[in-house]
């Protein structure tokens, strides 16, 4: 799974990993592997369609 490889790569570099995932995906392997996870207010595919939200989450 591509997401797992990305998370492992981020952690190998010593960086903090954060996953943005829909509430229905909170138990997905890539989410469990990250240091932190953020769930948008909506669930399902709509949680991934707001391109602005990752920027807003990062600036908190």
Automatic annotation (TrEMBL):
| Biotin carboxylase-like N-terminal domain ranges (all copies) | 3-56
- Superkingdom as given in the UniProt entry: Bacteria
Which Pfam families has this protein been placed in? Biotin_carb_N
Cross-referenced InterPro entries, in alphabetical order? BC-like_N (IPR005481)
Q: What is this protein called?
A: Biotin carboxylase-like N-terminal domain-containing protein
């Amino acid at each position: 799974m591509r997401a797992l490889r990305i998370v492992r790569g981020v952690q190998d570099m010593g960086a903090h990993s954060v996953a943005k995932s829909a509430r229905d995906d909170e138990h997905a392997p890539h989410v469990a592997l990250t240091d932190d996870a953020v769930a948008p207010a909506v669930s399902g595919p709509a949680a991934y369609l707001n391109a602005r939200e990752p920027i807003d989450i990062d600036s908190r």
